[in-house]
Amino acid sequence: MQLNSLESEFLKYLVDNQVTAGDRLPSLTDISRELGVSVGKLREQLEIARSMGLVSVRPRLGIQREPFNFAPAVLNGVLFGLGSGDATFVQFSQVRVALETFFWDTAVTQLTPTDKEELHDIVARAWSKLRGSPIHVPNGEHRELHLKIFSRLQNPFAQGLLAAYWEAYEASELTRFASYQYWTEVWTYHERIVNAICTNDFAAGRQLLIEHFDLLPTSPESA
Q: Which domain, by its residues, includes 147?
């Protein structure tokens, strides 16, 4: 597919030559000779492609095309918007809510029995942390549960935005001072959502998902 609007000669090279994930690229010198673009300019464009997760550079392996992952491409922009105050986490959270709600049926109907067992395991681990002594906040399980529910979704843009959301969620420290009651309410909902998924009551699971979105604080102070 030709994308003439791409401003990067390096990215155009990847597209025009149909370089697929796992393929090794020629040296920048060889690419420079082929494209008629300076090595210095290509090196700058290579670093941008690396920051987007499109390629990697490793000793002895050289430049290698990586599988497409939309999250790195948008995450820096998201974090800059939040850090500069040009955008808010609430706004990005609205995008996440819209995505999970819209793609719910498509995502959950593709989950396998093994996936459902893993969801039960995540819930069990979260309760173990909350009921342990000392108590631990199951932040990792929170992210893991939601991403697992949507892990079979065949849409790399939605997957990337959801992954970027959880990176931004952790960076925002929105629930850093959330009460114990908040976490028990959240995981009570999560347990009910997983039970609905495992009994194939997807409509009930979607309704529980929508209800539990209202628990999310709008700022660290409100937590």
A: 88-213
3-state secondary structure of 66: coil
C-alpha Rg value of the chain to the nearest Å:
21
User: What is the block-wise mean pLDDT of the chain (223 residues), using blocks of 10 residues?
Assistant: 73 95 95 95 95 92 94 93 94 96 98 98 98 94 98 96 95 86 96 98 98 81 51
- Report the distance separating Cα 37 and Cα 31, nearest Å: 8
Asked whether residue 37 falls in the same domain as residue 145, the answer is no
Distance CA 116, CA 149 (A): 9
The b-or-e profile of 197-217 (16+ CB within 10 A means b, else e) is bbeeebeebbebbeebeeebb
Q: Which amino acid is at 147?
A: L
Enclosing H/E stretch for 96: helix 89-108
Sign of CA dihedral 213, 204, 115, 151: negative
Quick check: is 111 in a domain?
Answer: yes
Residue 43 lies in a domain: yes
Going by C-alpha positions, the residue among 192, 183, 193, 194 that lies closest to residue 216 is 183
pTM of the model: 0.87
Interatomic CA distance for residues 125 and 141, integer angstroms = 8
